[in-house]
Write a structure and sequence with these properties.
It is globular and about 55 Å long. The longest helix is centred in the middle third of the chain and has 15 residues. The strands form 2 sheets. Strands 6-5-4-7-8 form a 5-stranded mixed beta sheet. By secondary structure, the protein is an alpha/beta fold.
Length: about 220
């Protein structure tokens, strides 16, 4: 059954909201928010009286990320990318939050750019996602990636043979084409999150990306010119 009510226990304005858009406005950018989706208002009201996760077995570590996205019908992904020098050695970091576990993925490249790593982080997250039949909520601090998808920029560039409205060429055509192809097959929501603002998953992705960029025997980013 689809979720129709969202209870926000920790956020800008705690309460019960009937749409995700309203609830999202209360938790996006808020440090350590606590919220959960329900199929009835009564369930949401009862949960707000004691917003805990006591029904979850202690050994599955869900309490570690109860503030991430408390909805078992949603797979949450955080991604980040970096380039040391831009261009220079780069890397991406990914955190997958499944209903019963957290997984991480990262990789480094010898010469690339920050935007390419931001894009590649999202692409590799979607390619390596183990559950693809649920809604996916992806968070990144790259407005380049989020705007490219949510504002339709990438599709317009693609339609115009990768030429932007100012007649300049759209960069990273290879990665945008791959991302657009992946997104078409998934129920995915792209969200921007402020970087280095205290969100532990964004911070973790940043550390993974930087560590990967500083690693040895880095891979080649064949799309970088």
């Amino acid at each position: 059954m689809s979720k129709k009510y969202y209870a926000v226990a920790k956020g800008i304005k705690p309460g019960i909201y009937s749409t995700w858009e309203e609830a999202k406005a209360q938790v996006e950018g808020y440090k350590n928010p606590l919220y959960k989706g329900f199929s009835s208002k009564k369930e949401a009201e009862e949960w707000l009286k004691n917003p805990s996760f006591s029904k979850t077995p202690a050994n599955n570590k869900k309490d570690e990320y109860a503030d991430a996205d408390n909805d078992t019908e949603v797979i949450t992904i955080y991604t980040d990318g970096c380039s040391l020098g831009n261009p220079g050695p780069g890397g991406f970091g990914i955190v997958f939050i499944y209903p019963d576990k957290i997984e991480e993925l990262s990789a480094g490249f010898s010469m690339t750019t920050n935007n390419r790593m931001e894009l590649m982080g999202v692409i590799e997250a979607l390619k390596n996602l183990k559950i693809k039949d649920k809604k996916i909520r992806l968070w990144t601090d790259s407005s380049y990636v989020v705007n490219g998808i949510t504002k339709g920029w990438a599709k317009k560039w693609q339609k115009n043979n990768w030429i932007k409205s100012d007649k300049s060429p759209a960069l990273n055509k290879d990665l945008w084409e791959e991302l657009l192809s992946l997104v078409e097959r998934l129920d995915i929501e792209f969200n921007w999150i402020k970087g280095h603002a205290g969100n532990k998953y964004n911070e973790r992705c940043d550390r993974l990306a930087v560590e990967a960029a500083k690693g040895e025997n880095l891979s080649r980013d064949y799309g970088y010119k």
